[in-house]
Each structure stands twice: as structure tokens, then as C-alpha cells.
Amino acid sequence: MKSFSIIFAFFIAQALGYGQGHVIHLKNPSFESIPAQGIDQGFFLPGWSDCAPYYFRNETPPDIHSGHTSFFGVHREPIDGNTFVGMVTRGGAETWEMISQRLNSALMPDKCYQFKIMLARAERYLSKDKRDTAHFYNFNKPVKLRIWGGSARCRKTQLLAESDPVKHTDWREYTFRFKPKAFYPYILLEVFYVTPVLQPYNGNILIDKASDIIEIPCPEDELLASVDIDLPSVATNNKPVAKNNKVIKKSTKAKEINKPIVVNNPKQVDINNLKKSSHSKPKIMKKLDKNSIAIGQTIKINNLYFEADSANLKEDSYEVLDEIYDFLKNNPNVIIEIGGHTNGMPSSKFCNRLSTARAKTVADYLKTKGIAKFRIKYKGYGKTKPLYTNKTASGRRKNQRVEIKILRVD
Predict the structure, then answer these.
(1) How many structural domains are present in the chain?
(2) I need a labelling partner for 383 at 20 to 30 A (CA). Which of 53, 171, 251, 316 fits?
């Protein structure tokens, strides 16, 4: 029976046109349209959809720029064609922009792909901020591009790859290689803050000249296991490119990797498999049970690990976070607070910032997977609520924790 399934899947893939070196052609890869400010004209970009309405209310769509127009102070010639797209992150509103496209053939599970795109940052991107609509602010801080596989038009299902922070103001080619875990008929391009995000900020990214998505041979498993997956640059290769596509400069920064590597990003798990996987392993959060929780109850999140003095989650943390996601998904009337705590050694200012950032990282992860924003509050308590003495290493480790507080149970 197993061999029959393999043979059947092979013939289905052949019928759909898949095979070694399969090419997925994007529609409108150079982002050609009529130059327009999203705030005034809405979003018209053939082949692409604006995803902001699916996640944020009353937010403007991305902007279409050209070398002959100057919106928001952006003066830039496109690298290909007549127009390019500008997308921003917003500090006051804590929102960001994203576009998606339905592929002419879906990304296949356990296949490896290569995708290239040109990125840049505008030194001037003047717009109003939600905190102060009377003045213009420069949305010019570096952000990064995240590439998602989607099961629906604007549904972020698996984070396939992400770029380094785009700090340069010239067009440079980025190469991404990734390995989907499921069938994804959509690809999503999202601009996002550089993590960890202690405070959302105003940033921008310019995108142009996307390539086809090409199936490539997968590397050996040993190569995957050797990669430090916590580095945001592991799936990215930055190469400065001149207008004539000749390389004019190559970075030698230590964090950049000359040869891009296929990486399964552990921060995103196929949602369709969450329920199945949760029943095959012992429960981590045993106290998180709908029959025993009560309003005001505080439950420590076990098996949650961060990098030292950082809000960056380690790979081993996602199992418990997905367990919390399952609980919230199955109990839609529960509202919680994520509370961050530190030990008593650093300054109060540092502890407050770190505890808040870690609580927000956990909350953002759950929201990204689909839990409504109003159901998850977050707060950093710093070093104000120790449970043990800070005079011993053991006590300090126990004080440095993240907890769930039950705010409402219907």
C-alpha cells in the first residue's frame, strides 16, 4: 500500500508538470503598474494582492514608485521595468505591509527551491505617523523581507525565508533557498521589523525584479544540521548589483553567508499538522487545562528558552508555544496575559525592556499563528516580582521566566 501511494504521488506530480528543475513563473515579477500613493489611490498591482486588510484595519496599502515620480521623497530609478513597490513598517500603529500572489503551480512539500529578488532601502520615505498626524516622519530605518508559503491568499502558513536587515540604499540581489513542508499555492512577501523588537519603528523596503521560483536539488541533511538557524542571514545571500547586472561590490561581513543554504525555519510549523503532533507527545503545560483553570491563575511557561539578554527564541521553545496555541484555539473564550520576568541583577530599565520584549515575542508568535489580538495581552514586570532569592544562580534562573495569567474564562 505504501509503495502504491508513492507511485500515485509520482504520477500526480508528473501530471501537474512537476519534475527536476520545475520552474514556477510569477505574474508581473517586475511590479509594473501605474505609479500611485497607496494612501490616495488604493492598491493596483496586476498579479499581486494587498494583505493589509486581512490583518489590520484602516491601513493604507503599499506604494507604486517610478523614476519619474516622487512619492514621500523617494527618488529612485527602478532596476527593471518602469515601476517598483515600496512597503513600510509603522511604529505608531504597530503595523506592517504585505503582498501575495497565487502561483501558477503550487510549491511542493519536501522539494527545494531558489528565488531571487532585488531589494533596497530609501533614505527618505516621508509619511505621517499614527501617534502624530500633524507632522511627517522619515520611515527610513532598516527592515527585513520575509517570504511565506500560504495556503490561502493572505494566510501566512510557513515562514520559508527572511533577509538580513536591508541597510543599503542601492539595489542588491538577494537569493533565497527554501524547502516547504506542505503544498502552498500562494507566496507572500512581507516587510517586518528587525527582531527582537523592543519598540516598533518606522522603516521601509523597496522591491523590484523578482525571479522565477526554480526547483533545485536539495542538499544533504548533514548540511542542514550544521547551520545556526538563529541567524537571520542563513537563507540570504546579498550581492550588490549594478544596473547592467554586473557585481560591483561584495560584502565580507562575518554574518553574511556566501553560499545560501536551504533551511527549514523552526519558527513556523504547518498548522494542519499541529493537532496531530500534539497528541503524540507528553503535554508540557499540564496546568493549562480548561477544566481546572481559573481567573487570576498564573502558570509558568515551561521549556521556553531565549538567547542570553535577548528576546530571540531558541528552537526548542516552539513545541510549548504550539501547545499554548492549540489550547487557545480550542478554547476561544479564554483571554490571557503573557507576563515577562527577569532576575534582579541588571538595572531596572534593562529588566523592564527585556521582560516586555520577551512577553511580546511570545504574544506575537501566537497572534501570527491566528489567535485574535484582543485575546492576548502582554506585560513586562522586570525584576519586581521575584519568586526566589536573587543571591544564588539557581534562584536567578527561576526568577527569569515567562508566565500565562488567566484574565477571562467564559
Answers:
(1) 2
(2) 316
For residue 13, the one-letter residue type is A
DSSP 3-state of 318: helix
Phi/psi of residue 340, each to 5°? -100, 140
130 and 228 share one domain = yes
Cα 101–106–111 angle (5° rounding)? 125
Q: What is the dihedral of CA 187, 267, 155, 369, to 10 degrees?
A: 180
Q: What distance in Å separates the CA atoms of residue 235 and residue 160, rounded to the nearest whole number?
A: 9
Give how far the C-alpha of residue 169 lies from the chain's centroid of Cα atoms, to the nearest Å: 22
Cβ atoms of 209 and 80 within 8 Å: the answer is yes
Which residues constitute the domain of residue 24? 20-240
Name which of 43, 47, 49, 53 is nearest 30 in CA terms: 47
> Is 220 in the same domain as 275?
no
Predicted pLDDT at 8: 46
Summarize pLDDT for 19-59 with one digit per residue, the tens. Answer: 556 899 999 999 999 998 876 566 789 999 999 888 887 78
In percent, how much of the chain has pLDDT > 70? 77
Q: With 50 as the cut, is the pLDDT of residue 264 above it? A: no
> Measured between alpha carbons, how far is residue 128 from residues 133, 140, 202 in Å?
5, 13, 10
Cis, bond preceding 78 (omega within 30 deg of 0): no
Say how far apart CA 131 and CA 199 lie, in whole Å: 14
CA angle 397, 266, 280 (to 5 degrees): 85
Q: Give residue for cell 485575546.
A: 375
Same domain, 141 and 201: yes
Whether 73 and 199 share a structural domain = yes
* Helices within 246-304 (DSSP H only): 274-278
Q: In the 8-state DSSP scheme, what is residue 88? A: E
Instruction: Please name every residue paired with 58 in a beta bridge, in sequence order, or none if there are none.
Output: none
Helix (H, G, I), strand (E, B) or coil at 132: strand
The CATH number that applies at residue 161 is: 2.60.120.260
| Whether 88 contacts 96, CB under 8 Å | yes
Q: Model-level pTM greater than 0.70?
A: no
Is the same domain home to 195 and 310? no
37 and 164 both lie in a single domain: yes
Beta bridge mates, 129: 132
Residue 395 lies in a domain: yes
337 domain residue, yes or no? yes
| Residue whose C-alpha is closest to residue 358's, from 324, 309, 407, 287 | 309
